[in-house]
Amino acid sequence: MLLTLTGGSGAGKTTLADALTATAPRVSTRVLHGDDYYFGTPEHGGVWRYDDAGVPHLDYGSPRSMDFDRLTHDADAALATASVVIVEGLFAHHTAPSARCPRLDVFVDLPADLRLVRKIQRKCLHHGFPLDVLLHNYLHHRRDAHEQHVEPARDASDLILDATQPADTLAQEVWSEARTRLRHHLSPKANSAVPTYRYRGAIVDFLNT
């Protein structure tokens, strides 16, 4: 199964991915982090902005700044070995592996003010990022980018989570929905594309946990 976690910066996607791995019901998991798939240099791709000194800065708020070809390759490789592959990131819902499998697209929802507070705590208080730069970027670009590129995933998601709840609680909600979807996918009426003979033991463990 492919499980994607999409949501705004600071919504708690990485924390939830960790909680899902820690509470996985006797199945193997693999996590792919969207932050690892941004383009690294302008010549390779991405949307870049240049400051007054001519220094390029990647636009992390645009999906065109992500190397989805590499993400697809890694997702296919992970699906060949793990029972559940979790992809988390701003644009995780764009993940489209060539491997045919059931999927669950989750939107991690947290109010904008709480997401901004978390970003300030993480980047400015813990890592020394200039607060004025963060706020300028948020007000002049990242807020609009979120509405344009991230929020549309809400309507396309299978499950919307209230991220003010503890991560362990959210993880249990996700695993419950994953079981429901897998049962439906494997029902006699469903046109299942999963080679169940390969994963029968894992499927049984997952559904019976």
Automatic annotation (TrEMBL):
An example molecular function term from Gene Ontology annotations: kinase activity
Alphabetical keyword list: Kinase, Transferase
Domain Phosphoribulokinase/uridine kinase: 77-165
Keyword Transferase attached: yes
Spans traversing the lipid bilayer: none
Keyword Phosphoprotein in record: no
InterPro entries noted in UniProt: P-loop_NTPase (IPR027417), PRK/URK (IPR006083)
PANTHER family assigned to the protein according to its UniProt record, in alphabetical order: URIDINE KINASE (PTHR10285)
UniProt-recorded name of the protein: Uridine kinase
Organism from which the protein derives: Streptomyces chrestomyceticus JCM 4735
Gene designation: udk
